[in-house]
Amino acid sequence: MSNINPELVEKFTAMAQAVAATVAEVPSKEEAFKYVVDLCLSKDPCELLADEPGTEKGPLGPNRVPTRVQRVLAAPSLNDEDFALLDKLCQEKGILCLRDKVRQYAAGIDIGINEAVAAVAASGTCLCPTTDEDVRLAGMISEISVVLLKKSDIYPDLPSVAGIMREAIGNGPEGSFTTLITGPSRTADIECVGAVGVHGPLMMHVLLLEA
């Protein structure tokens, strides 16, 4: 019996789109990975916002800094089987697929993939375990953040996921990180002039999985 609540899926989709996230339904992980690879190839080349010796540089981007010639996709949270599938698709298209050492490519990453353990329909928010630094970086320094979310993991509101957050905090002898993501990065200066992407990704895509 399915645990998917269509009303919660519809509510989450509407709220996520309201904060400028793109939401797409995909039938399987394989289709999700094909979506990500196509998205990576269709976006403008990633800008190198810091010096990265040995990296092949392309034309200047909108910020008047060089672009990265090879596309880079970071997916450190995937298990062995899923990463192997994604990596195969990336290799076929000439994309570098990272599972670790994400910090070495911090000058510019095209797409970072995270997996959500829960989502809040009321605000279009995704909860992602990010204790691992590579996972944390993949969701923060990429130009586009992609979150994989099972439809059955969508909850009505924030109190509904409090138990999941408490469990995450209590796991392990050391502190843990759980990131709550609601749309792409947004900020405003003292004159209330809004900007996108200053403290994180310029765009966010949520891929809704059936299971």
From TrEMBL:
For this protein, the record's Gene3D superfamilies field holds:
NagB/RpiA/CoA transferase-like
- Cross-referenced InterPro entries, in alphabetical order? FTHF_cligase-like_sf, LUD_dom, NagB/RpiA_transferase-like
Domain named LUD: residues: 9-209
Q: In which domain of life is the source organism classified?
A: Bacteria
What's the short name of a Pfam family annotated to this entry? Answer: LUD_dom
Which PANTHER family does the annotation name?
A: LACTATE UTILIZATION PROTEIN C (PTHR43682)
The protein's name is Lactate utilization protein
Give the organism the record lists. Answer: Candidatus Desulfovibrio intestinipullorum
